[in-house]
Design a protein that fits this description.
Elements: E1 9-18, H1 24-33, E2 48-55, E3 58-65, H2 78-81, E4 86-92, H3 96-100, H4 102-112, E5 118-124, H5 136-146, E6 149-152, H6 161-176
Parallel strand pairs: 1-3, 1-4, 4-5, 5-6
Antiparallel strand pairs: 2-3
The protein binds guanosine-5'-diphosphate and magnesium ion (MG).
C-alpha cells in the first residue's frame, strides 16, 4: 500500500469467520447500519459492506466480508479469504462448541492467507451472560496463546461492536503506515 499523501485512500479487506449462528451477520449489520435482526435466515444477500473510517485525517475504507451461510457446510472458499488483511474470528459465549471450533477457523485462515493478518477473537452474545458456557478468562487465554486481540461483544445491545472493528482497522493501519 502507498504511503499517505493527501487525498490517498486506503482499502482494507476484513473477513468475518466462525461457526454458523454465532452472530457474524448481525455484528456486521450492527456496525455498518446499526441494525439487528432476530431472524438468522435473513443473512442471504450482500457479500460485503464498505465502511469509511477516519484515521489521522485520512480516509480508510474497510471492506468487510460476511459469509452467505456457507460456513454451515464448511465450504468457505479461498476467494473469500483472498486479499484479506484483517479477520474477526467469532464464537458465541453461550455455546461452547463454537469456541471449540476457533482453532479450526484459525487454521483455515492461515492456510488461505499469505500476509500477516490483524486478528481479533470475538466472544459475541455477551448479553447472554446468564447462560454463558465460555468464561472471559477462557477467551482471553486462547487469544493470548494464539497472539490475537480479544473482545466480548453483543450485536443485540451494541456492546463493543464498533470497538471490535476499529481495533482491527487501527492495527492494520498502524502496520502499513
Ligand atoms: P451468523 O450465522 O453467524 O451470521 O449469525 P446471525 O448474525 O445470523 O445470528 C444468528 C442468531 O443469533 C440470530 O437469531 C440473531 O438474532 C442472534 N444473535 C446475533 N447476535 C446476537 C447477540 O449479540 N446476542 C443475542 N442474544 N443474539 C444474537
Ligand atoms: Mg450469517
Amino acid at each position: 500500500m502507498e504511503d499517505g499523501e493527501e487525498g490517498e485512500e486506503y482499502l482494507f479487506k476484513i473477513v468475518i469467520i466462525g461457526d454458523s449462528a454465532v452472530g457474524k451477520s448481525n455484528l456486521l449489520s450492527r456496525y455498518a447500519r446499526n441494525e439487528f435482526n432476530i431472524n438468522s435466515k435473513a443473512t442471504i444477500g450482500v457479500e460485503f459492506q464498505t465502511q469509511s473510517v477516519d484515521i489521522d485525517g485520512k480516509e480508510v475504507k474497510a471492506q468487510i466480508w460476511d459469509t452467505a451461510g456457507q460456513e454451515r457446510f464448511r465450504a468457505v472458499t479461498s476467494a473469500y479469504y483472498r486479499g484479506a488483511v484483517g479477520a474477526l474470528i467469532v464464537y458465541d459465549i453461550s455455546r461452547r462448541t463454537t469456541f471449540d471450533s476457533v482453532s479450526r477457523w484459525l487454521q483455515e485462515l492461515s492456510t488461505h492467507s499469505d500476509t500477516t493478518i490483524a486478528r481479533m477473537l470475538v466472544g459475541n452474545k455477551c448479553d447472554l451472560d446468564d447462560i454463558r458456557e465460555v468464561s472471559v478468562e477462557d477467551g482471553k487465554s486462547l487469544a493470548e496463546a494464539e497472539g490475537l486481540f480479544f473482545i466480548e461483544t453483543s450485536a443485540l445491545d451494541s456492546t463493543n461492536v464498533q470497538k471490535a472493528f476499529e481495533i482491527v482497522i487501527g492495527d492494520i493501519y498502524n502496520n502499513i503506515s
